Amino acid sequence: MFAIAVLIVHVAGRENVLTHYGALAYFVARLVYVPLYVFGVPFLRSLVWLVSIVGIVQILVPII
């Protein structure tokens, strides 16, 4: 979903600071999510997953 969102924004020519920080938020959140998943941290893991979803929304906002 992340790759598709980035591709859509790029093809539409709508890259900006919001899309940059959205991609950064998604990437960092997914990097943090993996160890939390491995160690079985339930609540914090859900919050980090939510940050990654917010990152994807930030990427798609300029298209709307």
pLDDT under 50 segments (min length 5)? none
Shape: elongated
Question: What is the count of helical runs?
Answer: 3
The rounded Rg comes to 13 Å
Whole-number count of domains:
1
Average residue-wise pLDDT: 95
Give the total of beta strands.
0
Strand content: under 5%
The quaternary state of the protein chains shown equals single chain
- Structural class assignment: mainly alpha
Pattern of helices and strands: HHH
Helix content: over 70%
Largest sheet composition: none
Q: Roughly how many Å apart are the termini? A: 17 Å
How would you characterize the overall build of this protein?
This protein is mainly alpha-helical and 64 residues long. The protein has one domain (16-63). The chain is 83% helix and 0% strand. The protein is built from 3 helices and no strands. It has helices at residues 2-12, 17-39, 42-60. The longest helix is centred in the middle third of the chain and has 23 residues, at 17-39. The mean pLDDT is 95.
